[in-house]
């Protein structure tokens, strides 16, 4: 049995279409067209999807935090690898971030060092 895709108008075998369990019928777009349609939709709605994801994360911060903590405990090596990857992927901005942090905290850091040296001398 074949079916004509409503999008590309091609006659295709039924297994080229997704079967919708709920309505017990095949989707009117073939799998390929559906995939493209979704990709397009995601591109068009990227802003909205991101905003929604961010909002969702903020609203469920506690849940995510607990989840993250659990995950970190369970997979410390993965986290380490991930952090390292992030660092190397973003080395320029990481360097900048560190330099900026240093500039902001310079006085405090230098004071700490001075204190440390004084303590060492006195002991
Ligand atoms: Zn199609």
Features:
alpha+beta; 4 strands; 123 residues; two-stranded antiparallel ribbon; binds zinc ion; 72% helix; single chain
Please give a quick description of this structure:
The chain is 72% helix and 13% strand. With 123 residues, it is of the alpha+beta class. Among the domains are: 43 residues, no CATH class; 34 residues.
Mean pLDDT: 91
Supply Rg.
27 Å
Low-confidence stretches: none
Order of helices and strands: EEEEHHHHH
The residue fraction in helices comes out at over 70%
Number of strands: 4
What is the spatial order of strands in the main beta sheet?
Answer: 1-2
Straight-line distance between termini: 89 Å
Helix-strand category? alpha+beta
Give the CA-based shape.
elongated
Q: Main β-sheet: number of strands, strand sense, barrel status? A: 2 strands, antiparallel
| Percent of residues in β-strands | 5-15%
**Total helical elements:** 5
Bound molecules: zinc ion
Structure description:
It is built from five helices and four strands, in the order ββββααααα. It is α+β, with helices and mostly antiparallel strands. Among the domains are: 2-44, no CATH class; 90-123. The protein is elongated. The N and C termini lie far apart (89 Å). The mean pLDDT is 91. Zinc ion binds at residues 5, 7-8, 10, 29-30, 32-33.
List the SSEs and their pairings.
Elements: E1 2-4, E2 11-13, E3 17-20, E4 25-30, H1 31-44, H2 46-59, H3 61-74, H4 76-89, H5 91-122
Antiparallel strand pairs: 1-2, 3-4
The structure holds zinc ion.
